[in-house]
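User: Modeling request: complex.
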Amino acid sequence: MAALIETKGLTKRYGAQLAVDRLDLTVSEGEIFGFLGPNGAGKTTTILMLLGLTEPTAGEARVLGVDPVRDPLRVKRHVGYLPESVGFYDDLTARENLRFIAELNGLSEAEAEKKIDEALRAVELADQGDKLVGAYSHGMRQRLGIGELLIKDPKLLILDEPTGGLDPDGTNKMLDLIVSLNKERGITVMLSSHLLNQVQRICSRVGIMSKGRLAAAGTIEELAADKESGMDLERIYMTFFKEG
Ligand SMILES: Nc1ncnc2c1ncn2[C@@H]1O[C@H](COP(=O)(O)OP(=O)(O)O)[C@@H](O)[C@H]1O
Ligand SMILES: [Mg+2]
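Assistant: Request completed. Predicted assembly structure:
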């Protein structure tokens, strides 16, 4: 499987603090990779470096084969990135917001309308597209955030805590949506979360971050059946959670 994301010794230091410490990470084509760790573990900092939004102190990354330090625009053009909080124009409708994005991506009007319809359908907002985003629930906003990413037909989605602040129903919808994008469109997903049960539910492989370091990585089965430690995944994660 091709590696869509690869980091070697990726490091970010803020003053005396190591936010990300010599991270070696691989996300392969086709997977839903869960980037798990308590608050402050370094997940967002890692994601910002993958997108070229902040420069590494040391080490390197390749995203879709591109070095985000050298060519951040090319990475941003091909990767769908959902930040922790998504910004929309509240006084515009969902459709108008997506039109704006389509225009920024250089789509023709006809192309844009087609893509917008598709995107709204994919995130189950087809009948809410003409509502002002200001009137959207948090869950609808998050789904619209994913819809926006679909406009540019990404091969890879990087989602930073996409279920943050959602209620159980909103969370379920978001997780189902991520799975369907992966299964039906073959989109590779890197998903950060501090919630083990969510990651466990939908991710094929998991990396656990703790204090800037990758403490463990593997399939859920590999991590859960870790005979050496004799612990299940929940207990492994909780030990990091307490430390973190
Ligand atoms: N811009 C910044 N300046 C200084 N410290 C930062 C900055 N961004 C993050 N940090 C610190 O780096 C560490 C990792 O943060 P972050 O990557 O946001 O973790 P996570 O996303 O896993 O919660 C935290 O201790 C945080 O306080
Ligand atoms: Mg974060």
